[in-house]
Amino acid sequence: MTTENAAGDAPRLYQAVFAHIQRGLWNDIRNAHTLAWMVTGLLLSQRSTIPAWLPYIHSRATFAQSSERRVRRWLENPAIDPTSIYGPLVTRALRDWGGQTLILALDTSVLFEKFCLIRVSVLFRGRAVPLVSRVLEHSSAQVSTDHLLPVLAEVKGLLDFVGIHQVRLLADRGFCDMDLLAWLRICDWHYRIRIKSSLILAAPDGQRLCKVNDVQLSPRETRCFHNVTLTRKCFGPVHVALGRPSDGPEQWQVVSDEPTSVETFAEYGERFQIEEGFLDEKSGLFNLEDSRLRDAASLERLVMVLAVATLLLVSEGIEVVQRGDRRVVDPHWRRALSYLKIGLRAVHHALSRGQAVFSRLTLQGGADPEPPGQRKRLCAPPQTTLEVGWQLVFRPLS
Length: 398
Prior knowledge:
This protein is α+β, with helices and mostly antiparallel strands. The chain contains twelve helices and twelve strands. Strand 2 and strand 3 form a beta hairpin. The longest helix has 28 residues, at 296-323.
């Protein structure tokens, strides 16, 4: 059968997906057709296993085994480079970003206790849209800076291509490495990175001030150290914010290239959106943990399939909200679903009514036209702020 004239949800969804995918850098356009069917199967089955996709793949193959073998060969094909496929898609979406600062999150996630997924995502209205992903055969979430810098260099190349230079990177304490911070300084990127309690704070002249864990805070108190250096290497000058949000023992400590305040914690707190993205992929929406792939290269291509689906769904959610049709698919008075979930519901709604989907690929900066009804605060406002620079200044809040 020819899919161009076929009726049904799967062929129409395939055609909408293929219209965007075919613009990638393909050495064989047949691989683009296969990817479009894979994304179609993923969206309709919401599972990351090849057998779950087979009912939605239309082809001239008589047996399901033939379609499965076609998909498996695609995932194992060393000639298929995820960067050359996904890069043109995400950069085309980012051309609508505008002049706002682009917030990135760097994080890792362990797959099957054997592989490590390194991910840099664009934080967008409560969700994380993948930008660059890399899968290593590495059983720990801790990876060296030698593995991180090539990923970040790829990110910089994509952003430079679309002319985005106002960038802020967020990362957890496992990524607080002086070589990484130096690389961010060269790129002229801003950052908010959580630091370890064992780090040493010193004045710009090298005179030691204290260890981070020597600073004992009262509940709901923050202290800001400005123009200090880190570790015995005296990397700096940087700015550090320490905070204790509640009566619990845990303290927050964040390093920034810009002067810190209590708002620094809220800025860093946006990082948790990437963890929501991992949850969507691994168990919440796409069930990546059901995958039976057990080699790094194939898993990286599968992760790229999930990234394409995520980008398309978030873009569809944006279109639905901009048209004023959000409440057609979201039963709440105020937005209670992520743009990803809105996009998924909008796709099923449109397919069941013979309407077009994925008419436009876009990620737009600026304020959210429909912010969610409730937002959780990372921590309560502090009672007292202590700023430390060349001199100590006590400034009680009114």
